[in-house]
Amino acid sequence: MAKNQKPQPEGWRTTRTERINYYIGDIGRSLEGYIVTAMMTLFLLFQGIDLIKVSAAILAVKIIDAFDDIIFGFFIDKLDIKKSKLLGKLAGKGKYLPWYRATFFLFPIFTVIFFLMPQNAPEAVKLIWFTVTYLLYDFTYTLVEVPMNSMIVSLTDNMEERDTILKNKGILAGIFTMLAGVIWTVLISEHVGLPIQAVALVSSVLFFFMMLPLATKVKEHNAELKNTEEAQSAEHYSFKDMLGCIKTNKYMFIILVSVLLYTGLQTGGSLGTYASFYLYGNSLILIIPIAIAFIPQTIAQLNTDRLCRKFGKKKVFLVCGLLGAGIYSLIYFSGYHNFALITVLLVLQAMPGNISQIAKTFFTPDTIEYTRYKTGKDCSGIFFSLNAFVNKLSSSISASLGLFLLGLSEWVPVKAESFEELAALNITQTQGALDSLWIIYMLIPAIGTILSVLVMVFYKLKDKDVALMAKCNAGEITREECEAQLSRKY
Fold first, then answer.
1. Which residues of 293-306 are buried (b: 16+ CB within 10 A; e: fewer)?
2. pLDDT in tens, 48-83
3. How many CB atoms lie within 10 A of CB 236?
4. Could you tell me which residue, 78 or 370, shows the higher pLDDT?
5. CATH pick for 19-485 out of 1.20.1250.20, 2.60.40.10, 2.40.170.20, 3.40.50.150
């Protein structure tokens, strides 16, 4: 061991190199998905497509994509891709990594194709292009995201290690998402003027190389279930088994409802740059509170796992979530005219808001462990598939809802390749349209945050009990020993 290298924590299964490669791969995967989330609404607004029509197209794609996600979740748990003649050589060893290795490169390819929509094409062609390429983008997103997220269960059975990986993963994703968002905003702003298509192409190439090391330099250390008669037949679950797992996992249902309410009403996320441009006359001005909040927000995120160990995941999530939602509401009622006050409030909101979101990532693996314990079946793929579906569905609902509401207002359609061209066109919006933009940008997300936090009040799975279930699933203690130490009967 190198002289200055920190020793491996006792009981941890993954190596430092494996964790780093997992983080880098996850950042690449997150940013590849985020570039569509962040840019899609702007891209479509610049295309001059009727906002009502495109909001309907977004929802139509999601209805179709619902089946893709759930079907893939079933097959990832049922089929052994390593035995495939076509993809077996790419797949390699493991439970979830083989799916990732065999499919991850498709994600950046279809992301680029999505942004290659010809601007001078008729509106009908643009709508067809959007529908087809967005569906392919979504499907390849599922091919990467489901095994990527499911892997947190198969990488290790150590709960402290798992929470640390989730915390670091969440913090790094948050930091790089913020940095990427700032860089993209600057590049497409009226001050630089690059087209969105060019930014998406270069970014996707970079993200491909970030995702590559995960495919070759990470190993799953907890792929097999112990202490269950089903351990040897995990590859042969029926669709009925999958439904049984879903029915068992009421805690996952609560999390999914919370995610749907929160993300589905984040209508301002994809309109931030537009709000900055039209409310403040500069597409970059809302970067200021993001920059100011960066350091205190990061410090708070770094201590999320410590807070959760001391006070419990649920309490940290609820308190910080409600505090962040309260500040969100205050921002809306303060109005957008006082930018100094808005900046202060946005900085204050960033700390509890981000702690709450990091804490929320700790819940899903716990519910997976609970289901493994209750059923003796490893249905991680189907659960993370549902999680991926709800995340993508809710993101599309927020984008669709934002565009739909903007389309109902007095908003004047525009057609441009960049904010530089938009500024040159000098198209003004009515006060009614700007008021609608402020509601979409701030009020609706505040309502969604409050509702998503309140739903989690019904989540009753205790941290200490999950730790015992994980030890039982890994064969470290017997089921009898586990049952004797649980705080209540589940």
1. bbeebbebbeebbe
2. 888 888 888 877 877 776 666 666 666 666 667 777
3. 11
4. 370
5. 1.20.1250.20
